[in-house]
Amino acid sequence: MLLIVDADVLIDYVGADLSMLGTVSRNVGQVHIAGVVLQEVDGLDADACAAHDLVVVEAGHLVLNEAAARRGQLSFEDWVSLLLAKENGWTCVTNDKALRRTCADADVDVRWGLEVMLDLLKIDAALHDDVVSVATAIHERNRTHITADILAKFVTRAGRTRRRR
Fold first, then answer.
1. pLDDT tens digit string along 62-104?
2. Which of 15, 7, 14 is nearest to 95 (CA)?
3. Which of 1, 126, 127, 162 has a CA between 20 and 30 Å from the CA of residue 135?
4. What CATH homologous superfamily does 3-111 map to?
5. Which among 5, 20, 57, 27 is positioned nearest to 136, based on CA atoms?
6. Edge-to-edge strands, sheet with 3-5
7. What is the distance between the alpha carbons of residues 158 and 156, in angstroms, rounded to a whole number?
């Protein structure tokens, strides 16, 4: 599985523990970040991405022009991520409901931001405590979108994943 993350997910991991997204990149699927998305994220640059095995990709003119021509609920940067995902067969990792719907309509696979850590647990259940710690840190920094209910469901699913191993 190859992944592309949008700004909301990237901001969550930068604020909590970017190294966990690097662990996902090395073990679950290479994580890509559109260059225009990276520009939206304070405190992160291409060197830091490379240090965590995150690949910054620059969209070509055709993708940029198509994204600029699109309208609707998605931002230009979201369109770029979606178009890159579609073009390359990548899975889009986002918590943005409009982007998730548009990905589904475009037959682009989509994952929640926390969900990629569950994929990681399927590979290495020993990371359970680290994964729960990062999810909790994301919740603490982003209670509006990663609610207590979402965190509780995640912790339950993480526990089930660990027990299945």
1. 999 999 999 889 999 999 999 999 999 999 999 999 999 999 9
2. 7
3. 1
4. 5'-nuclease (3.40.50.1010)
5. 20
6. 54-57, 31-34, 3-5, 91-93, 110-111
7. 5
**pLDDT 10s digits, 39-68:** 999 999 999 999 999 999 999 999 999 999
* Rounded Cα distance, 63 and 88, in Å: 12
Task: Report if pTM > 0.85.
Answer: yes
Domain ranges of the chain: 3-111, 115-164
